[in-house]
Specification:
Elements lengths: L6 H22 L8 H41 L20 H14 L4 H11 L12 H15 L14 H9 L17 H5 L3 H22 L16
Helix pairs in contact: 1-2, 1-8, 2-3, 2-8, 5-8
């Protein structure tokens, strides 16, 4: 018996769960007395949930593509096993040919350190599938999402004058967020910068997860393989 931990599933569930917690804090905001300890705690919790959700959406994308390589390799070396214990394992059932699994196993060391979206494009090209158009959805929003994660993890933002015009990064980001229809959450204001203040709320979490999900769905559709998280996808919704 072989146990296999699908991190993509865990990360997807975390992204959605943290987003829902973030929404609960926003819904309870009107009842908070400004300046109270309860308000301060809710503000801290709101940021923690929002940042965790958005980062987890990108972690899901990272785990999802790495598991394509890993599970293909495991299936190639352990094809005689009757089953693998764990939710999913789409490559054991022969959905990818032995030749395709071999290609993935042989090239993993070459692409392990490549950019996140580049890994997805590489797999599609390697297995003779049409790559995604970098100039359109779902690639462009996914690229913006990865940029958000990178800017948060490697934070280098300097002072930003309240009420000033959007920076170039923010203008591009807002175009994926619904333009002027994207409203700040109650723990910030319209005068605060889009990144990170306004973005890190429920609406931003919802955009992040939907972006990651749409990108993964398109990739697996092109690959012709069901994603490991597919059995849970109906529960991974954000209103």
């Amino acid at each position: 018996m072989t146990l296999f931990k699908w991190s993509s599933i865990s990360n997807a569930k975390t992204a959605v769960l943290m987003a829902r917690q973030c929404r609960e804090r926003e819904q309870s905001h009107p009842a908070l007395a400004q300046g109270s300890p309860e308000a301060a705690t809710a503000t801290d919790e709101h940021w923690a949930f929002a940042s965790s959700s958005i980062v987890s959406s990108v972690m899901f994308m990272e785990a999802n593509i790495n598991e394509v390589f890993l599970s293909a390799s495991m299936a190639l070396s352990d094809e005689t096993r009757p089953n693998f214990v764990g939710d999913g394992f789409p490559y054991v059932g022969g959905l990818l040919s032995r030749d395709d699994r071999g290609k993935l196993e042989d090239t993993w060391d070459l692409v392990e350190g490549a950019g996140l979206l580049d890994k997805y494009q590489f797999v599609l090209a390697l297995l003779g599938k049409e790559r995604m158009d970098k100039g359109n959805a779902p690639y462009q929003p996914a690229n913006a999402l990865v940029g958000v994660r990178n800017k948060l993890i490697h934070f280098k933002e300097g002072p930003h004058e309240v009420g000033s015009e959007l920076r170039t990064f923010e203008r591009n980001l807002r175009s994926f967020l619904g333009g002027t229809h994207f409203q700040p959450h109650p723990f910030t204001s319209a005068g605060n910068p889009l990144f990170p203040d306004q973005l890190f709320g429920y609406a931003g979490c919802r955009w992040a997860w939907r972006t990651a999900d749409a990108f993964a769905q398109e990739f697996h559709k092109r690959l012709g393989i069901e994603a490991a998280y597919q059995p849970f996808r109906s529960t991974l919704t954000l209103a």
